[in-house]
Amino acid sequence: QVQLVESGGGLVQAGSSLRLSCAASGRTGSVVVMGWFRQAPGKEREFVAVINRSGYSTYYSDSVKGRFTISRDNVKNTVNLQMNSLKPDDTAVYYCAASTSFSGVRWPVMKDEYDYWGQGTQVTVSS
Length: 127
Fold this sequence. Notes:
- This protein is an all-beta fold.
- About 0% of the residues lie in helices and about 50% in strands.
- The protein contains no helices and 11 strands.
- The strands form 2 sheets. Strands 2, 4, 5, 6, 9, 10 and 11 form a 7-stranded mixed β-sheet that branches.
- The radius of gyration is 14 Å and the shape is globular.
């Protein structure tokens, strides 16, 4: 089992920055990729960003590319999401997720491709 705990959410104004963190514990050696998803009220949970085990390869959704940066610290077992130039449309509950399998052919962008989830942290961006 892998436990994930997110932190860093809050209420900010449009144009501001926020940094989310996800602390992983348990059988972290089984985790191959780590990702961030978000879910706005009344909407489906959507992919935001993913990073591989080494931390050298990343992939982003078009909606956040150029504004968000995902990174990981394998010593501390944490994954971070630096969010800049925030917009009201970024308002959502943000979830950290871990996958124990990765084909290497296609980045996992569907929520069913992840095995473990955190409880989520609320991000609210006011206009």
